Amino acid sequence: MTRSLTIEDAAIVTSDDVGTVHPRGWVHVVGNEIVGVGAGEPPPSARTADEVITARGCAVMPGMVNGHTHLFQTLFRGLGDDKSLLDWLRDYIWPAASVMTPAEIAAATAVGIIENLRTGATTVIDHQYLHPGGAHDDAVLETADRLGVRFLLARGWADRNYEPRLTETVPEVLERTSAVARRWHGAGDGRIRVETAPLIPWGCSDEAVRAATAASRSWGAGMHVHCAETAVEVEMNLQERGMRHVHWLDSLGVLGPDTQLAHSVWLDSDEIDLVAARGATVVHCPVSNMYLASGVAPIPEMLRRGVSVALASDGPGSNNRQDLFEAMKVAVLLQKVHHLDPVILQPEHALHMATRGGARAAGLGDRIGAIEAGRLADLVVVDLNSVFVAPVHRVVSALVFNVTPREVRHVVVDGRLVMRDRDLLVADEQAELRAAVQCCRELFERAGLGQPLRLD
């Protein structure tokens, strides 16, 4: 039976084309779709919904999209401290990731998804590149389906110049990615989707990038790739291929509206124009870029030239959190201090990146990312009547600069309440956490990398 939900008596931050905010309004959901939104009192049809949540003192916002993460890294928090990207990969990621079991990646994924839901991200793009035994993708996707999140598996791979235990041949990439897509693309009533994700330019051959992207597009998906994250990687591509990353991708015919370019810190002016012309999306990871000292992405210039920008946490191993409220705040403040310009990036820009930009990155630009009739009901209810937030003069400013995960009260994904009054409804959170910590102990003991602090 189709159920209905109304959230009333709250500030409604629609994130629509003109940034409408109703200081006091309502949202009506039937099944998995928003059927009405407005100011003031809800109409009678909305007031007779199966469940009515009165959210006085709260704001309702679109569920955010975490446009780039690596959920397996939930077990790797803190291990990237004070390291460059390449040193971090060599010292920690490769040794442990190469021996990670499907059960361990499932446990890490569960905690990572719960963290995303608790921080207001209802859609996650997981750049998952661990395939040492062949069953890891299914373990990740089964977990995502069970926890009710909207999920895009960016099935990562490298076919050269990478850790041998994590390298696949071109035929393996094509066969395995296509098989995962056949099993999972469109599962969970459409919540679960699969695309290809070349890991890094220096780890991927031209042949493999072309073939994998064509395969992904054959089932209606796109392509996700790390792009120009560090200056060193750009120089590597120049020396080998004679092209910067964006020009290289375009030369292969894979740059388009369904392409997500994670990081894009070191794009030059020509590359920015090319990304805009092709309609690709840049996925900005400001906290990770600061954490690994990768650089400051030219986000204001990208926006000025018409590039669509999404927002992301990056993996827990290089952040060490997955918190898009934090990412919104850092994204704005980083540009202000970098340019010494207090108005160069504003809270509204950050909210747009986390919602509308993320929706476009996920291939759902007309389905999620805003509170409008006809869109899917991915909603987050945030408590503004908090000592950390109130008084509120500008709601969007409060969401970007004040709100933290502790203010997230209710979360709705695809019309279903997955968190009510801060209680997770889709899993036993403490049991999931205990399982992940135990998996971490066993994994790091096998890899010879020491043990996490005991917390029990």
From TrEMBL:
The alphabetized UniProt keywords are: Hydrolase
Protein name (database record): Unannotated protein
Recorded hits in CDD domains, A to Z, give:
ATZ_TRZ_like
Gene3D superfamilies named among the record's database cross-references: Metal-dependent hydrolases (3.20.20.140), Urease, subunit C, domain 1 (2.30.40.10)
Q: Name one Pfam family in it.
A: Amidohydro_1
Annotated GO molecular function terms are: hydrolase activity, acting on carbon-nitrogen (but not peptide) bonds
Q: List, for all copies, the residue spans of the domain called Amidohydrolase-related.
A: 60-418
InterPro entries xref list: Amidohydro-rel, Metal-dep_hydrolase_composite, Metal_Hydrolase, MTA/SAH_deaminase
